[in-house]
């Protein structure tokens, strides 16, 4: 049986695999100017994937699913087909944030959808460029495929399940937002500040070392070991189900099983107020 790749790929390994026929690279940078920056320069042969239109489905009211709910499986399959993705492709995802925030979301979605060979580049776009990964401004020629329609297979929880979990001593809810948002001292995005009752705060930024790369497996294990010990249910959430995937990526890279993702996260919870 072929050994499954690590969730993270180092720049040195990417360069070694650069000319492999099955390699396909995605730029998941998000933000107002991310597409413009991509059009000016990106890692060579990369395809841009948009957080707002591909990696989430906008709802009229974030009360129902949060600000970045998952797209339908049909829409996701259509997007993957438009990228020319095939089941045998080795997918490498990066973005322009340290640790790959939106890249981690795309990684989680592909893994949940059943795509086996997918990795996030350890180090952002600037790091990769500085360490010799080729760049250009050309648009990759894409031959559309017919990617199969599957379903989301990785563990998730919805609002009702989180309500039950917060009363369960054998469950733990981890809020990965910044400490000031968790404490309710600041809320720049959602209308209400604070956190889900009983949730603990381990900011996703702690997954990263000073060099802008993920901490080692041993460091990540040590950081989460006490919180996760003896817990039967582990739930990860953030503001809208994106940065939570960063922590899931870190945990998985350190050998932990996949925890449950609360996609709606604080953006949904704060609008429902424990109803």
Give the helices and strands, then pairings.
Layout: E1 8-9, H1 11-16, E2 23-27, H2 34-40, E3 42-43, E4 47-48, H3 73-82, E5 90-94, H4 101-113, E6 118-121, H5 125-130, E7 135-136, E8 156-157, H6 159-165, E9 171-175, H7 179-183, E10 200-201, H8 217-228, E11 233-237, H9 243-253, E12 260-262, H10 265-272
Parallel strand pairs: 1-6, 2-4, 2-5, 5-6, 8-12, 9-10, 9-11, 11-12
Antiparallel strand pairs: 3-7
Helix pairs in contact: 4-9
Q: Report the end-to-end length measured between terminal Cα atoms.
A: 48 Å
Query: What is the mean predicted local confidence, pLDDT?
Result: 94
How many alpha or pi helices? 10
Strand order of the largest sheet: 1-6-5-2-4
Q: State the share of residues found in helices, binned by percent.
A: 25-40%
Radius of gyration equals: 18 Å
Order of helices and strands: EHEHEEHEHEHEEHEHEHEHEH
Largest sheet, if any? 5 strands, parallel
Sheet-strand content, in percent, reads 5-15%
Shape: globular
Name the structural class.
alpha/beta
């Amino acid at each position: 049986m072929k050994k499954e790749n690590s969730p993270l790929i180092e720049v040195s390994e990417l360069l070694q695999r650069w000319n492999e026929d099955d390699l396909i690279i995605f730029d998941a940078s998000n933000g107002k100017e991310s597409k413009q920056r991509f059009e000016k320069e990106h890692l060579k042969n990369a395809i841009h994937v948009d957080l707002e239109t591909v990696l989430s489905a906008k709802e009229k009211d974030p009360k129902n699913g949060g600000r970045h709910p998952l797209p339908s499986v049909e829409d996701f399959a259509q997007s993957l087909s438009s990228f020319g993705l095939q089941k045998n492709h080795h997918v490498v995802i990066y973005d322009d944030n340290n640790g790959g925030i939106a890249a981690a979301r795309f990684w989680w979605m592909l893994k949940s959808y059943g795509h086996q060979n997918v990795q996030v580049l350890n180090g952002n776009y600037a790091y990769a460029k500085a360490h010799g990964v080729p760049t250009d401004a050309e648009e990759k020629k894409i031959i559309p495929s017919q990617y199969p329609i599957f379903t989301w297979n990785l563990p998730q929880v919805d609002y009702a399940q989180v309500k039950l979990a917060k009363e369960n001593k054998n469950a733990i809810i981890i809020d990965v937002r910044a400490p000031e948002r968790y404490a309710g001292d600041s809320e720049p995005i959602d209308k209400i500040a604070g956190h889900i009752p009983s949730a603990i705060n381990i900011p996703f930024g702690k997954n990263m070392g000073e060099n802008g790369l993920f901490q080692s497996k041993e460091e990540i294990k040590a950081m989460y070991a006490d919180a996760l010990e003896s817990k039967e249910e582990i739930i990860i959430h953030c503001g809208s189900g994106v940065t939570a995937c960063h922590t899931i990526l870190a945990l998985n890279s350190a050998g932990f099983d996949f925890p449950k993702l609360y996609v709606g996260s604080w953006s949904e919870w704060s609008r429902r107020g424990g109803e």
